[in-house]
Amino acid sequence: MRIGIDVRYLSHGLLGGVHTYTKHLVPALIDLARPEDIYLYADTKAPFELTSLPSAVTVRLLPWRGPWSSIRHDLLLRRAMERDRIEVAHFPANYGFGPRGVATVITLHDSLNLRSLRDSVPGLRASNARTVRHILMMSYLHGITTLALPRADLVITDSGHARDEIVRYGHVDAARIVVVPLAPTPDLRPYRDADRRAALRRRYDLPARFVLADAMKNPGVLIAAWRLLPNPLRQAVQIVFFSRRPDAPPVVRDAVRAGDARLLARPPREDLVALYSEADLFVFPSWIEGFGLPALEAMAAGVPVIASNRGSLPEVVGDAAVLVEADDGPALAEHIRTLLTRPDEAGRRREAGLAWVARFSWRGTAEATLDGYRRARAFRLARTAHR
Q: For the chain, how many helices (H) and strands (E)?
């Protein structure tokens, strides 16, 4: 089975969930499939990230000369796949067009691209990114995803919640959607190196105790909850926000100026892994998640987790995390206080998280994905037979 995978996310210098998904799924697929059956399609915008690939894996580098090249490749990548006589075309980044007659698989991580611009703009406003450029980008992603989705033979998504949302907004037959959970990356584990931990604390001037959080995931409710905590606790513990973007919402910058928080912009991956392990608690009150991988990452690093009860998070974290309504500051404050002041409860949550996260692996994700490829070929054959 000749498999073609659009891996341009690994040649654009990008970060985020789709990048993590593609970077760890592809090597796991190569380990399971015959390497000579794998064709990877990147471009030349940035150096291709995957190294030490088996020599039998074919990598095609498409020329990138500017933003219009990305749009051109979105529409015409199928021609390169057609020349390679691909049998299954996989697009891991929410949309794509396979060659005519070829089984096409799209991984649609959530329903955001399927929603109207009216639904998308509040999210842009909340992230301080309501600009013409972002609105144009969201409009393009909405248009190309809604165009590509009906043509796919199979849709892979990360959670049952995402599947239901795709059915709702994309009007896709649920029988054509397969849920394949993600997994923490192999580097996520309790960090044991005392010297490197001490170096990390010196480098970032970390407080003795801190709560870790993503600066782009509903930080306002965490800051509001923080101000409800007893003063002695606030004096002893601080919030440390990380962000994969250089800017941060105004509410985070205000909290930093007030001395309640620190902001680490674009910390290297190795440092982020260590930050998880050093934290007393990870708080993830996100409004919407197709999967919510950071919550699992924190569990894998041995950190107690508080997450919102929105989107896919309840099914992703199970009973191992504390769940709270995303905008309920008082309830969040109470849970934070409990886990920061009761070592027994924090320890129980830590052990529950480590046990829960053990059921997720990239090998399992790859096995389910390969099974999806086989189903997609069967769907394609059935479609062809009925014409």
A: 15, 13
Question: Residue 190 pLDDT > 50, yes or no?
Answer: yes
Assess whether 141 and 246 both reside in one domain.
Answer: no
Which residues are CB-contacts of 290 (< 8 A; sequence separation ≥ 6)? 17, 109, 110, 111, 112, 157, 158, 159, 161, 162, 311, 312
Q: pLDDT tens digits, residue range 331-366?
A: 999 999 999 999 999 999 999 999 999 999 999 999
Instruction: State how far the alpha carbon of 175 is from the alpha carbons of 106, 155, 282, in Å.
Output: 14, 9, 36
Residue 226 lies in a domain: yes
Asked if 96 and 104 touch (Cβ cutoff 8 Å), the reply is yes
294: containing domain: 194-357
Contact 166, 111 (CB under 8 A): yes
Please compute the mean of the pLDDT values over residues 29-36 and round it to a whole number.
93
- In this structure, are 108 and 205 located in the same domain? no
What is the pLDDT averaged over residues 249-254?
92
pTM, entire model: 0.88
Angle of CA points 29, 31, 36, to nearest 5°: 85
Domain count, the chain: 2
- The CATH number linked to 133 is 3.40.50.2000
Is residue 136 domain-resident? yes
**What pLDDT, on the 0 to 100 scale, is given for residue 120?**
54
Determine the pLDDT at residue 157.
Answer: 98
Residue 61 domain-assigned? yes
* Cα dihedral sign, 287-322-164-376: positive
**Mean pLDDT calculated for residue range 184-190:** 85
Distances from the Cα of 184 to the Cα of 124, 295, 363, angstroms: 27, 9, 11
Whether 189 is covered by a domain: the verdict is no
Residues 96, 64 share a domain:
yes
pLDDT exceeds 50 at position 68: yes
Q: What is the mean pLDDT of residues 294-316?
A: 95
